[in-house]
Design a protein that fits this description.
The chain contains eight helices and five strands; from the N terminus they run αααβββαβαβααα. It is α/β, with parallel strands linked by helices. The chain folds into two domains: 91 residues, no CATH class; 101 residues, Ribonuclease H-like superfamily/Ribonuclease H (Nucleotidyltransferase, domain 5). It has a five-stranded mixed sheet, with helices on both faces. Helix 1 crosses helix 7 and helix 2 crosses helix 3.
Length: 220
């Protein structure tokens, strides 16, 4: 994964972790690394995040614990280049992250794409609790019809408090930065933040290490 890079794996992973765990700007991470005796440009750190996040996510998914069969599904707003984008997320009734997907628009196809992704990675749920979103309702009904499934739809707003509260961790990590300028960069950064969040929630199998050591183990 790190072959051909000037900096060793330990430095690269640490810089990427700082971004996901603490929501620092790239210039702040550059300064933090300099304090530790490592001179690396903020643009290089940004390239590391862009390059290695998909690889770390792929490894995490191999080792992610199985989630429950009763989900809470919702979406929140993320600004990219001055425009609102939509982050679809789901947790199980215990608060474990099921899946996530950043989309450019809030519409039926976006909700369907998220649902299909979540089921592909986590298996089919018995029940999904949603708010009054017509797009989410439509997505589940279409999935049931096309796959001859019987996923129950429940619409109790107060039961979605658990996923709405969970949004806060992700948004808090974004708030301190300078904002996203490119959609794909936003998507990868959010994926990395979600990985660290799931590690914090002990969703990595056979995990008795610190958050950083667990994250570092994903790098092989």
């Amino acid at each position: 994964m790190f072959k051909g890079h000037i900096f060793p794996k330990s430095i690269i992973v640490k810089a990427v972790y700082f971004k996901f765990r603490f929501g620092l700007s790239y210039r702040e991470i550059e300064e933090l690394m300099a304090i530790r005796g490592v001179k690396v440009d903020h643009a290089t750190i940004q390239r590391w995040v862009f390059k290695f996040t998909p690889l770390l996510e792929k490894e995490f998914r191999k080792r992610k614990k199985v989630v429950g069969k009763r989900w809470r599904m919702d979406e929140t707003y993320i600004k990219v280049k001055g425009q609102w984008r939509y982050l679809y997320r789901a947790v199980d009734k215990e608060g474990n992250t099921v899946d996530f997907l950043l989309t450019k628009r809030r519409k039926r196809m976006s909700a369907q794409s998220f649902l299909i992704k979540a089921i592909r990675h986590n298996g089919k749920p018995e029940l999904i609790n949603i708010d009054k979103s017509g797009a989410n309702t439509h997505a589940i009904r279409v999935y049931n019809k096309r796959t001859f499934s019987k996923i129950e739809i429940r619409q109790y707003k107060y039961l979605n408090n658990i996923v709405e509260k969970d949004h806060r961790f992700v948004k808090k990590r974004i708030a301190r930065g300078l904002g996203f300028k490119v959609f794909e960069s936003a998507r990868r950064t959010l994926n990395g933040i979600e990985i660290v969040h799931m590690i914090r929630k002990n969703q990595l199998t056979s995990n008795r290490m610190s958050i950083f050591k667990s994250f570092y183990s994903l790098a092989g």
